[in-house]
Design brief:
single chain; 230 residues; mainly alpha; three-stranded antiparallel sheet; 3 strands
Length: 230
């Protein structure tokens, strides 16, 4: 494929509008490996900084997320800890329950064979999703039983604090990782040479509406890329 063809495949023109009025035009493309790693490094830095603040009982971040710790009941603490580990259960499930692929279609498959193949693909995918959900529910129930047996409220508070910090840092990592990708993939020119924002800080300070538009367009490119691969 030509260089121009690749640009069209992995990038798109985006009009920034206020109602029907076009305020500006930018060009969004999927980032490469270097920018992807850069996004990860930046996200790790932000996550680490937030973790330090959350552990500081005098910080605004700690007070806004953990300020009511002493008023939480045992049930509240158990629920918070369990919810905080859901992503871990999901990751365990994804490893424990591998994908099953439908047998390949024969050469020159008939229409009926193709229809049956597609039905089987959907059934296998749905069965895996159901198995993952059941695995996560089972692990959550086991964790709740384990935590209910803990007699010390102070110990539960420590576990809850650890859980909330991990949740918030995970959310921060995900947010910054995605935003840095969008920042690195948004350009002023069609040739994708000049970034639309002078710095990541400038991008971070732009309006939530603009971020939403650019993020939506970036995700649409990712989805299109996956469709092309398939």
């Amino acid at each position: 494929m030509s260089k121009l063809g690749n640009l069209c495949r992995w990038s798109k023109k985006v009009e920034i509008k206020d109602g029907d009025t076009v305020l500006d035009t930018v060009y969004v493309r999927l980032v490469g490996d270097n920018d992807y790693q850069g996004a990860r490094n930046i996200a790790l830095r932000y996550s680490k900084e937030l973790r330090v603040k959350l552990r500081d009982s005098e910080s605004v971040e700690h007070k806004s997320n953990l300020g009511d710790l002493d008023s939480l009941t045992k049930d509240d603490l158990v629920l918070g800890i369990t919810v905080g580990e859901i992503t871990d259960y999901r990751d365990e499930a994804l490893v424990s329950i591998p994908e099953k692929e439908a047998p390949p279609l024969p050469d020159n498959a008939t229409l009926e064979q193709q229809e049956e193949h597609e039905t089987l693909v959907v059934e296998l995918r749905d069965a895996r999703v159901q198995a993952i959900m059941e695995f996560m529910e089972k692990r959550s129930d086991e964790k709740k039983i384990e935590l209910d047996a803990v007699g010390s409220v102070e110990e539960l508070r420590e576990l809850y604090t650890h859980s909330i910090i991990n949740i918030k840092c995970g959310e921060e990592f995900t947010r910054i990782f995605r935003e840095f990708q969008v920042y690195s993939g948004t350009f002023k020119d069609k040739g994708l040479k000049t970034l639309a924002f002078d710095s990541f800080e400038e991008f971070s300070d732009c309006s939530p509406q603009l971020k939403t538009v650019l993020l939506s367009e970036y995700i649409s490119l990712e989805m299109s890329g996956e469709e092309l691969k398939n």
